[in-house]
Amino acid sequence: MKTDTIFAMPQSRADFVFDDKVASVFSDMINRSVPGYATILSMIGVLAARFCVPGSRIYDLGCSLGGASLAMAHQISHKDYELLAIDNSPAMTTRLETLLTAPGSSDLPIRVICGDVCEIDISNASVVVLNFTLQFITPEKRDALIKTIADGLQPGGILILSEKIRFPAEPLNELFIDLYHEFKQAQGYSALEVAQKRAALENVLIPETIDTHKQRLQAAGFSSCDVWFQCFNFCSMVAVR
Ligand code: GEK
């Protein structure tokens, strides 16, 4: 795994993009930047194994290098489903295509699509995953995307929604951000790397509160939803159609 040193040297401020440079170090970056990432992936696999209905589709929206897709495909005991792994970064999808040719992965029912998750059709889905993707979608488009997902899920199907979140109480918000930065430094990132990445993400990653997510999920037609994982300002929710 190539080490992420993208923000190690002083640089002029520019918005974060999922380009080739990021894709080439992405596994290291996300593992050291999202508390509990490995646990979340593994439990997405457990949830998918429980909810994937034979003959249905699974959607991994904003799949990056396919961490969630592979966790699901390796834990579902049958092969009677189609897993659509979608990302609008060609650098990510090209790499994922290559990863899927590796021994042990080449026979998995995963189809990689380079495209915008806001533009795709969703139908006959039993499981949909937005693992740290909705936060990068412009807030005005989020209601429509969640509604498209709800409409494309079978009754009883699930959406797994993982997000960086903010808290309504400002002192708590600041505390969790501070603890998160401490976590990143414990993962080997310098104070400069943490500060430069934070600035690069400022206009790109827009976190919302858990209440905002829950209200949107309910309004879209999910019958129930709740948080199943949380560490500081990172959480994962499950919503049942
Ligand atoms: C994982 N889920 O490892 N359409 C398609 N893809 C998009 C869009 C869009 N409109 N906007 C952003 N992306 C992954 C991790 S990373 C999270 C997801 C992070 C893609 C973007 O190209 C990137 O690959 C991904 O969403 C977000 O389980 O880096 O914190």
Explain what you see.
With 241 residues, the chain is an alpha/beta fold. The protein has one domain: 3-Layer(aba) Sandwich (Rossmann fold). 42% of the residues lie in helices and 22% in strands. The chain has helices at 20-33, 37-51, 67-75, 90-99, 139-152, 170-186, 191-201, 210-220; strands at 56-61, 81-87, 110-114, 125-131, 153-164, 224-231, 234-240. It has a 7-stranded mixed sheet, with helices on both faces. Strand 1 (56-61), helix 3 (67-75) and strand 2 (81-87) form a beta-alpha-beta unit. Helix 5 (139-152) packs across helix 8 (210-220). 35% of the residues are buried. The mean pLDDT is 97. The site of ligand GEK has 20 residues, from helix 3 and strand 2.
